[in-house]
Every structure is written in C-alpha cells, then in structure tokens.
Amino acid sequence: MDIFLSAGIALGLSSGFSPGPLTTLVISQALQHGAKEGLKVAMAPFVTDLPIILVSVFALAQVRNSQT
User: Fold this and answer.
1) What is the C-alpha separation between 28 and 57, in angstroms, rounded?
2) What is the enclosing helix (H) or strand (E) of 16?
3) Residue 47 and residue 40: Cα distance in Å, rounded?
4) E strands in 1-68
5) Per-residue DSSP letter, 18
6) Which of 17, 26, 41, 65 is most buried, with most CB under 10 Å away?
7) Rounded Cα–Cα distance for residues 24 and 66 (Å)
C-alpha cells in the first residue's frame, strides 16, 4: 500500500511542477512586457472559464430539479 501511495505522490508532484503552455506564456509575457502583463495573462482562465462553470452548474441544477 505504501509503495502505491509513494508512486502516486511522486507522479502527482512531478506533473504538478512541470510547466505547461499557460505557465510558459505567463512567464514569457512577464519577461517581455512586465509583471502587470504577466498577471493579466495569468488571470485569463478565470475570465474565460467562469461563464462555462456557471452554465454547467445551472444546467446540472436544472437536471437535478427535473428528476424530483
């Protein structure tokens, strides 16, 4: 059991710390245009994902209410 937990922690940490495309873009923008522009790029997922999350929650609430 401990070996599976250790493997899971190792895999999770290695994938969590590896930079992805968004991290690379944020670092690139911050280095080229300053920290303020990097922060704007870092906040973009909050702006773009919020409408999708709200629509999903609303749709799931409608499905749940129609089942009862």
Assistant:
1) 34
2) helix 2-17
3) 10
4) none
5) S
6) 26
7) 44
